[in-house]
Every structure is written in structure tokens, then in C-alpha cells.
Structure of DUF1648 domain-containing protein:
Amino acid sequence: MMEKRVDVGSLLVLAFTVVYVIVMWKALPDTIPIHFNLQGESDGWGSPGTLFILPLITAGLWLGMTVLEKYPHTFNYLHLTRENMRFQYENILMQVNVMKNFIVVSFCCLTWVIVQSAADGGLNRGFLPVMIGGIGGTFGIIGFFLVRSLRKGEKT
């Protein structure tokens, strides 16, 4: 049940992101920054229409991972036994759900940073924290669920 609530929450974040882009549309210049270097400086430019690419990719990833959640028996497991099968399936489903919703929020934050950068004339102070948070969070989620899976596997 909690997974459904988190799914709804992340879809609301995605919807609000699309609405935010639409609301900000008139404030955007004809050319906006779409790529940033590690210093947060724009090194790639495009039309405002490119702002809809990230939400489309995000929606596609969310949908694909939602379908993936239906087939935990097809995943590879490090230590799967009859005794821990239920736990391992629930663990991997929770991992996919957390990753899916984390990706949605991360991509929405990235879209917000790009819109803010475009509205501020290319200045971007939020890009690096969003990218570090996204990459670090992804590895953190993977590590957490991997350790959890291994610990349960050792007990059986």
C-alpha cells in the first residue's frame, strides 16, 4: 500500500513539473541551457521545447519500471532459497519501487534547475548538488537493498 502512495506522489511531482514548465514558458528565452559542465556552467544550448524531453523520459522510465515490478521471479538473485524467496522478492520489488520514484524526483529536480537557469540567463547554482544527490542517492539505494538482500541470504 505504501508503494502505491509513493507512486501517486511521484506522479504528482511529475505532473507539477510539467505544469511548472508550461507556466514558465513565456519567461524563457528562445535559447536555453540544456547541458552543464561540472562547474555548473552551461556548455550546451537548445530550444525551450527540449524541456519536455526529461519529463517524457521520466514518464517512460516510470512506466517501464512499473511493468518490471510485476515480474520479480525473472530477476537475478545472489542467494535465493525456498526459505528466503518471499523476502527476496519483496526486497527487490521495494528496491525497484524506490529507484523508480527516486528517478522521477531527481529528473523533475533537474528540469526545475534547467528552467531556473534559463530564466536567470544561464546562471546555475543548483545543477551540481542535484547531480551529486542523484548519483549518490542511486548508489545509496542500490547499496542499501543489496546489503539487506545479502544479510537475509546469510541467515537462511
About this structure: The chain has a mean pLDDT of 84. Residues 85-119 form the longest helix (35 residues).
